[in-house]
Amino acid sequence: MAVADSEGGTVVLDPAQPEEGYAEGTEVTLTAVPHDGYRFEHWSEDISSDDNPTTIVLDSQIRVGVVFSRVVFPWWLAVAGLIVVVPLGLLGLRSLMARRKGQ
């Protein structure tokens, strides 16, 4: 079995592929492991599935591809965080200043 390389992650085979290759009929579990900043999307080439891990039974030479996509931090989440955190921080600072003034 040939597993295509991907910049977004790697594929773990269980059981590991023997040097001489798998025997026909071998059940193999494929697990896509994304690198930091990526996520698993789906399998490609001779496998069409979005299950991770996925198990296949080898009945011939097959090519396995995996598609990872970059995880993009949504800009609106940062804005929402600022809308919540900044006012709370200002309230805390105001409260601290009032306590210090009262001492």
Sum up the structure in keywords:
103 residues; alpha+beta; 2 domains; three-stranded antiparallel β-sheet; 1 helix; 6 strands; 35% strand
Report low-confidence residues grouped into runs of 5 or more.
none
Report the C-alpha radius of gyration, rounded.
25 Å
* Spatial gap, N to C terminus: 75 Å
Largest sheet: 3 strands, mixed
Describe the structure.
By secondary structure, the chain is α+β, with helices and mostly antiparallel strands. It has two domains: 2-70; 73-103. The chain is built from one helix and six strands, in the order ββββββα. It has one helix at 75-102; strands spanning 2-3, 9-14, 27-34, 38-45, 54-57, 63-70. A three-stranded mixed sheet has the order 1-6-4, with no helix packed on it. Strands 2-3-5 form a three-stranded antiparallel sheet, with no helix packed on it. The termini are far apart.
